Task: structure prediction
Amino acid sequence: MSERRLRTVGLLGGGLIGGGWAARFILNGVDVRLHDPAPGALERAQQQLENARRAYRRLTRVALPPEGRLSAVDSIAKAVRGADLVQESAPERLDLKQQLLGAASRAAAPETLICSSTSGLRPSLLQVEMDRPERFLVAHPFNPVYMLPLVELCGGERTAPEALERAAEIYRGLGMHPLVVRKEVDGFIANRLQEAMWREALWLVHDDLATVQEVDDAIRYSFGLRRAIMGPFRMPGGGGGMRRFMQQWGPMLKWPWSKLTKVPELTDAFLDKLAKQADDRGEKLSGLEIEQKRDDCYVALLQGLRSQGYGAGETVALWEQGLREANFQIDDGCGPLRMPPAQMPSDWLDSNGHVNESRYLQLFSEATGTLERYVGVDSEYRSKCGAFYTVETHLFHLGELRAGDRAQVLTQVLGAQDKRLHVFHVLTREADDKPVAMSEQMLIHVDASSRRSAPVRGRVRERLLELAERHAKLPRPERVGASIRQR
Result:
């Protein structure tokens, strides 16, 4: 497979895992021939494919290759004949998998790689009825397969080492992270870790120490986020740091904090093994660098969850809402509305080292939102009356902002009619009147029920008209109504 592109996959089983595989293969430009005698298997796979399309549109803006084709076939032989790879994803029954894999091995070309998606069955047990078992291995994914990148690769007693190498190359090309299991073991690596936590979760509910919601929240709002960034052995100081950590905290593992109290003896030989493997990573990051990288990743995770209003992200959103309400102050004086200053973060920079233009738009959008709150457009008004929608924006670049700069937006209302709101924003560094950027916006008020343009109502209308009358006395910005001028 290193010499040619993966073109066709024979997929045996189209359930939750098989359908997820189909989606990942197809969106990477690979044709899939699906064999699954269960009624509705093709339709379920197509639904997973549609879910994956939706997710990938949000995951990346890079153009994907032309999609592969999904077709259903009525026999194992038709699915695997001429395929570059066979992926078995049948129910977790040893006899069924042995039968499917044996039949697939007799129908597939001798060089075809054959993989099983089993969650924990040893590959040596799955190989027993196969022709050419040296090309077989376990490739265990996680649900949903099209989103989660880990695939555990585990060979059996008769698996050739080069089969594992080929598989790792194939799955890496599909955007996955192949993890080769060193020794054949039930449940492989990730599921053994999941099982330990799952058992303890069941005991907590069984013994009335927690409810299912409390157990879920304990994970989602704490170490569930941490484990997306670092595993249990990620700590500063290399082998020395690992040894100090285990010497300090290792003995506590024998305390009766859980039902699972059996732990390896922390002998010098075992501590040496942990320290050596920590050093073998070759990481040279200091404790401070690790902490900062960890915090940067937490910020990215929490911001992503906040955008969905879910889990720990909902907590951040509620916290921010409280901060806005507690600190809602705008310097309106007799001039433009002066929004509270904000410091520019380092992740807002583009390749030229200054704040990206999309962030200017974000700042202006936030200023418009602050203006709306100032005149009384709150959640109650939005639900009962309506809200403003931007229909046109003009952005003017006049200078640059860099990380650490404190900037603020000055907002002038140019006009407020029944349905329209015309505003002009000026972005400056704090305590500096020289503009960095400007934006002219036209907004339309949309009714909450009809979803059509409609007049502004009640106190919001009164406050907008008052503000527009006051701002009419200010100098009109010279760039109002400007467009790109051609020579």
About this structure: The longest strand covers residues 435-447.
